[in-house]
Amino acid sequence: MTSDVTVAPDQVSLGVLVSAVPRDVIDLAVAARGVGAKRSGGTLPPHVVAYLTMGLCLFPDDDYEEVAMKVTGSLSRFGCWDASWQAPTSSGITQARKRLGSAVLADVFEGVAQPVATADTRGAWLRHWRLLAIDGFDVDLPDSEDNAAAFGYAGSGENRSAFPKARVVALAECGTHAFVVAEVGAWSQGEATLAARLYPRLHPDELFTADRNFYSFDAWTAAVRTGAALLWRAPTQLRLPVLAVLSDGTYASVLINPAIRGAHRERIIAAARAGIEVDPDEAHLVRVVEYDVPDRDGNGTGELIVLLSTILDPAHARADELAAAYHDRWEEETANDQLKTHLRGPGRILRSRLPDLVRQEIWAWLTVHYALSVLIARAAEAADIDPDRISFTRTLHLIRRTATGTAAFPP
Fold this sequence. Notes:
Layout lengths: L14 H6 L2 H11 L12 H13 L5 H14 L12 H11 L1 H11 L12 E2 L2 E12 L4 H7 L13 E9 L5 E8 L4 H6 L9 E5 L6 H8 L4 E5 L10 E2 L5 E6 L5 H12 L9 E11 L9 E7 L9 H9 L3 H14 L10 H29 L8 H11 L9
Parallel strand pairs: 2-5, 5-6
Antiparallel strand pairs: 1-2, 2-3, 3-4, 6-10, 7-8, 8-9, 9-10
Helix pairs in contact: 2-6, 3-4, 3-5, 3-13, 6-13
């Protein structure tokens, strides 16, 4: 729940992008991708195009030239715009975006996105572990032939979606809602495929939370190899032998590669019960936390939640702490809602009719959300409150109202 707490006006304006996305990060990405300005004094150098693309995401209801008025005017106050340049036209922006490409904006997001929470950030930690969650969402795209061929539709025949769809899977920091790692792909690729690219990017100081639709033995193996702590909801069909009941009512179990069956499986269970180390290619020791979520009507049809964790010792994290941490996984749902409903706008499709520009726009979209998350988190720390108590919607409206001004824009 949010309160009436908001960030102060002098903290915002388009400067939130320049602060969270410094020009040197953009310049490094431009140099690495070899898409620097072809001549000096050009009206749209690459760093301006990058900020313009982010501006298009910040102002989805405005056309290209209206966004250019706001962005270039604000950039001039932060030393990112030369007074001799003229604000660009719509066609000029489109051509410049094509020259810049999507890889630069992907590198920019990669260059700035990092954990935001500090030790003082409420709702972002379980003891010494930083809480992360994984989730996916779809993005409606303009119904062009190029987008349809590159991304595809959801469903088929009469049940086919109205627009082509891109798919995004991301890791978000619980508490701040900041996306820190993401993958962008076609709808046909599936969440599991994109998620597999994210697991190797976990860190030992993180507690990674995931819903059951992301579970597989291979996914668990990839994630556990990073040294991160894991907290994963078990799918209903998973067989979990009880090795030992622990002091807090949780129990030790073993995840076994589903390709292993029969006598070999029973030998692994017996070895694990005897305290013999298991081969990580075949099995993983886990702690199982089970609890009921009562139904709202009180008719006894509550849901049993079964969680798997690599935190084997109850002294390191109690069962109630793990249950609460799993509940915090829904913070990513809040991040998705902020991105799609408030920043982008409900029911809106992206602007880009070409696949590379779609990817560019999505990376810019994620970067803008990250910048807003940083601003809100810092304001929450200053007020000593949970970031959830600061309204994302009000902060966004305040930024949009204060990001005004022109830079050599013709009347």
